[in-house]
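Batch job 17 of 40 flagged for manual review because the log was empty.
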Amino acid sequence: MAQIDAFFKLMNDEGASDLHMMSGQQPVLRIRGDMERVKFKSLDNETLKNMLYEICPEDKIKVFEETGDMDFGYEIPGLARYRCNFFQQKYGIGAVFREIPSDILTCEQLGLPKVIAKLASLPKGLVLVTGPTGSGKSTTLAAIVDEANKSRKDHILTIEDPIEFVHKSQQCIINHREVGTHTKTFTAALRGALREDPDIILVGELRDLETISLAMEASMTGHLVFGTLHTMNAMKTVDRIIEIFPATQQGQVRSTLADALKAVVSQTLFKRVDVKGRVAALEILICTPAVRNLIREAKTYQIPSVMQTGKKYGMQTIDDAIMALLEKKKISAEDAYTNCLEKQRFVKFLRRPPVDFTEV
């Protein structure tokens, strides 16, 4: 048993999502969104380095010492998997660990709208799950892949950096590939994927033009492709994909994206006030013919209006989702106001004036 495993056990017991360890400081846990120090001595650089290197593969240590940054996955059987990031900072070595639960929760257990589970049955196309870091994108995607695994008879291929949720083959067969371990880059893995007879491809992160381009190509050639982006809502997700391409190509990209895109799910996590835990507010865009036309005609600013009128298809805006949580008294008015888009709609619920002077 590695020394650091005791901190992972504590992390699991406390229901923490992340563990931060930095030279010269006490370990810190992120519990329901808040940072809380562990009652433990400050760790000097050499002690922390030895503790971290104990769980790190030798080839990854070499990469870290050459570059100062490195990601890998670590698993404690029977407890959980961890997404690990090592980095160098002013006072020495640092590391952050994100817990990936061993048990994959279903869409129903997560309380996701019914349309989310239906995304697993799409025959082809591009589905994007977006949101800021730590908003639960991986958890939502894992639930969708799990639904496909139970209900389809296909080949699912995941490409991640590092591997997070591990699925066992059920009705489907599943292959997990890790960037840096099983393949050099997302791009190389996606190129190879088209020759590996997949039906469903999960791309951990659409980071650059080439990866996005290949993901769109795969979705247009009969594959169902799931991916993540760090964007705040559905409209900005569409704009981000188009704007990453050179101006001369954007007209063609709009046309391709309009045909390829099936759905965008944008989510934000909130701390619950009724019980311990967190809950997600989801913006859902389903690509109906009306949405496709807006993308082709560069009128993405009208997408929120289509979502308002498309509730029968399962669409909802982020503000409607936040309002529903607020009305059920699951989240605080302050959190709702901070994360919503139309501030005027939520200001009446506040006891005190807004603290963000930029919104006045």
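Reviewer: the log was empty due to a logging misconfiguration, but the result itself is present. The CA atoms of residues 26 and 41 lie 6 Å apart. Unflagging and moving on to job 18.
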